[in-house]
Amino acid sequence: MLFPDKYTSSYFGELDLNALESWHEAEIELHGRAVEIALTFMSEDRKTTRGALAKIDEFLDGFALKIKQIESVLAKDYRSGRTVKQYIDFLTEEIDEEEIMEVMPNYEADASIEDNIFRHIHLLSAVFYPEAGENIFAILDYSISKELTDELLVARLKTDNSLDILIES
User: Fold this and answer.
1) Residues in Cβ contact with 54 at an 8 Å cutoff, skipping those fewer than 6 apart
2) Contacts with 64 (C-beta within 8 Å, 6 or more apart), sequence order
3) d(CA 159, CA 164)
4) CB-based contacts of 159: which residues, under 8 Å, 6+ apart?
5) Which region, left, alpha or beta, applies to residue 110 given φ > 0 means left and ψ of -120 to 50 means alpha?
6) Mean pLDDT score of the chain
7) Are 157 and 70 in contact (CB under 8 A)?
8) What's the pTM?
9) Pick from 76, 74, 67, 82: nearest CA to 138
10) Deepest in the core among 4, 9, 93, 109, taking most CB within 10 A?
């Protein structure tokens, strides 16, 4: 018989480490927008430690600052013409400009459509992977509008704090 082993997260509530569900979700606010946050367990036995969960809570405690740092990497990637620029180019090629402009309330007429899109891309969700052995800490999904496109700009934060930037649908 297993003894109760619980962790109380400031964001996900009480978690029984002996009986974790595969998915735990909550919501957090960032810059006036709701962002879905989740814990996911990929393996059948769904094992983690208090330390791994505490690290996620710590990340979420400083969420705005952490996201600002990640978004600064996204901005550098955009200016370098890499993945973020490719994502924006995809949007401008596949979606009518009028539709894009409808989801950009603060459109700057003196800036390019691409720069306007970049300024309006925002975080939709952050999914954390607290299982031992995972080299992914979190996957952050960005978009200009989830109603406008299924294509996401994804920032994959690894446990070593490196960041991969991808486009996914």
Assistant:
1) 7
2) 30, 31
3) 12
4) 134, 135, 136, 137
5) alpha
6) 92
7) yes
8) 0.92
9) 67
10) 9
Residue with tokens 């946050």: 37
For the segment 110-164, what is each residue's pLDDT rounded down to a tens digit? Answer: 889 899 999 999 999 999 999 867 799 999 999 999 888 999 999 999 999 999 9
Amino acid at 61: D
Distance of alpha carbon 161 from alpha carbon 67, whole angstroms:
13
- Tokens in use for 106? 């603060």
Helical packing angle, 50-61 and 63-79, nearest 10° = 70
Measured between alpha carbons, how far apart are the two ends of the chain, in Å? 43
Query: What band does 2 get if pLDDT is binned at 50, 70 and 90?
Result: low
Tokens at residue 8, please? 């109380």
Span 44-89, pLDDT tens digits = 888 898 999 999 999 999 999 999 999 999 999 999 999 999 999 9
Token duo for residue 169: 């649908």
Q: Identify the pLDDT of residue 47.
A: 86
In 3D, which of 20, 36, 10, 6 has the Cα closest to residue 132? 20
Q: Give per-residue burial for 92-117: e unless 16+ CB within 10 Å, then b.
A: eeebeeeebeebeeeeeeeeeeeebb
Q: Which residue, chain included where needed, has tokens 């509530």?
A: 13
